[in-house]
Amino acid sequence: MSTTPAALKELRDAYDDRPAAIRRRRAAGAPVVGCVGADVPVELVTAAGALPVRLAGDPARDRAAADRYLGTGLDPAARSILAGLLSGEPELDLLLISNDCAASLRLFYTVRELRRLGVEPSLPRTHLVDVLHLPHRTTTRYNRVRLAETKELLERWSGRRIGESELAKAVRQHDEARRRILALRRLRTADRPALRGEDALVAIGAGAVLTPEEHAALLDRLMLADAGLPRYDGPRLYLTGSAHDGPEVYRAIEAAGYLIVADDHDWGDALAGPLVGEPTLDALAERYQYRAPTAARSSVRVRADQTAATVERSHPDLLVCYVRDRDEAPAWDFPAQRRAAGVPAVILEHRRYGELGEDALPIIADALRTARQNGETG
Amino acid sequence: MARRNKLLASSIEATRYQREWFAGLREAVAGGAPLALVNADAPQEIFRAMGIPYVVNQWWASVVAAKRRTGEYLRTLRENGYPDYSEQYSATSLASVFAEIPDPPWNGLPRPTIVLGDTTGDASRKVFDIWDEQDGIAYYPLESAAADTVPVNWWELMPDQWETVIGTARLDLMVAELEGLVRFLETTTGRVFRESRFREVMALINEQEEWNRRTRDLIARTRPVPLRVDDSISSVMVPQWHRGTVWARDAARRFHDEVAARVAAGEAACPGERLRLMWIGRGLWYDMDFYRYFEERHGAVFVWSMYLAIAADGYIRHGDDPMRALAARFAAFSDQLYRPPWSNEWYLKEARLHQVDGVVHLVGEDARSGWFITETLERAGIPVFELRVDNVDQRAYDLTTVRAAVDDWLTDRVAGRASKKPSPHTPSAP
């Protein structure tokens, strides 16, 4: 049995206790900007001299305080983020919320109104970053305006001008981290993967609380250790559907002997692409507008194309669509994804946050058995 | 359920007109005319100006729900692999593209060639994506932008100062979206967009909504109320879906005049009116008797729903540039109804204007900022009953339990409070 490589252990430590990583950063005197959603332009935050930390929910966290304000009809991951904010964990100097999904936008309206009414005075100063995603030039033009406003906001807040050199450095640092996330694919999609899905999720997600330089360095070390990493065997699954801001579902699937060789949500593989490239607001606007598709923002057709491409490069035996309760968009994608995948597919609906559900493993096993009988798996 | 007699001639006329229009529409589509299916909060004015027939998606869902047939359509969606628990209000119509149910309401929904909706919500745009997958149907998606900061009192500012209220970035984007829509429709339908016709449409709509504003104000200040909310829905909403026509403008005026005549004659919806209630949320289409069930026992009459009120406050946009004014109507339309601080502060303003004693607040699964609405009203001393059901999907609706709970709430929270208030205003002439 192989030991866990040191780099993966360090990534896991950061990932497993993300609030602790943020506390350490603040204790060292660095301002911390909480980011909700993957559409906050972290480059601008970094260029303003602050650490962008992406906030995650936690299925184990008591959501009652947040449910009071948001109701229970909203994705529990967003409700959990608000529960964390209401409890003051983590402490933030500023909160930027993106419009990356309906739940994030609802969270923004809720925090803004709670602050206006003075109901929860401990909530941090909060602003919206309204980046939109229809594939049109007019949308890019709008995003460009919003990013310029965010830049000005960060300059006023930090007292630091974000000049060309600061932006260029930040873009380069974040692109380097993204480049390495993209390179991780090779390890998890190999014939005998060196990374399980949960390992990849942790390695990618640790970047939520690390500087891009730290993250890139740890990913480098992990990939350099490739030859010494264990190799995994098992039925190969492509996990699509809701985003996973924690490892619980991956862990439950892989503990049963399956390997998640691909996913397509923005806490996982879809976080990385594309790179920004040019250090300009125009390039940033285009990067966030056209970043990798997700269930919340992308059309059914785009998601189906993404599914086909992901199957092509990861060779799964089964497509598993996980639909979290109150996160319904993936269920609308699924019929087209199934048609596009060219491999057997199952859907797991009404899943509780952070849980696979008792019926899931039998459903997966049945689908794989049927596929084998029909000669549909490799 | 026994059908109620309609109280208003304007309502009877609106229903007659709608049936005649729908029959004509079916004929036109059978003859090869394009047909658009558009969301309720989408800029139908463009279609009106270009003479492209359209059906409002949520109107159709309300027709189906009123006939209690929604479940059959949702079952069709499920049978075709789609969720039956998501976006039921917007998705009812989609089922028709797969298979029409037996003996459908109004002989069923004709197949559209164009569908229009914005990208608000993760799942709602997917419903339109599925339409887009069908042969001969194209979806034109509209961006849905949001603002970091907004002034609270939108209802005072919107008619003339919409640029300030909504912000230049959102308006620039929506104007670009609308310009694109016009080109898309010109290209796909061969119909022509004439600026002169568009100006007429926009002017007619402002006139229509000004009539609605007068009617709203009249109802708000008159005790006992001359009509209850379910009396007025057809009189308001059928013309709303036909806005931009002379018929719709005149229908709004006839509705106003009819209400004014009732007020002048001292006619009351509930002569023994003791409690004035507000209904917040979409209409409870499958149980319209709900709106008058509490009159006999409590003298409790529903005096307010969003349908007339949003017509009064939510549509009027003046300005020399009609396309930008139209963008201002829809760039933030749902913010007015659903997003704090606009929604909660507006509902409070309307509650006070209408002198309501209590509010029944429909909080569906998709509780859009419901806490703030309830909290704002309760803080102002207005009791709120939160009714947690879906407005079209009645599968989880228990009529007896719901009515008993509202009954108890009226007794325990509303009646006692109302009796301590100063004596009501006397009826006032228009």
From TrEMBL, chain A:
InterPro entries documented for this protein: FldB/FldC_alpha/beta
Stretches of the chain forming a coiled coil according to its record: none
Superkingdom to which the source organism belongs: Bacteria
PANTHER family for this protein: 2-HYDROXYGLUTARYL-COA DEHYDRATASE, D-COMPONENT-RELATED (PTHR30548), DEHYDRATASE SUBUNIT MJ0007-RELATED (PTHR30548:SF1)
Family: Belongs to the FldB/FldC dehydratase alpha/beta subunit family.
Name of the featured protein: 2-hydroxyacyl-CoA dehydratase
Species this chain originates from: Actinoallomurus oryzae
TrEMBL record, chain B:
Family: Belongs to the FldB/FldC dehydratase alpha/beta subunit family.
Name this protein carries in UniProt: 2-hydroxyacyl-CoA dehydratase
Organism per entry: Actinoallomurus oryzae
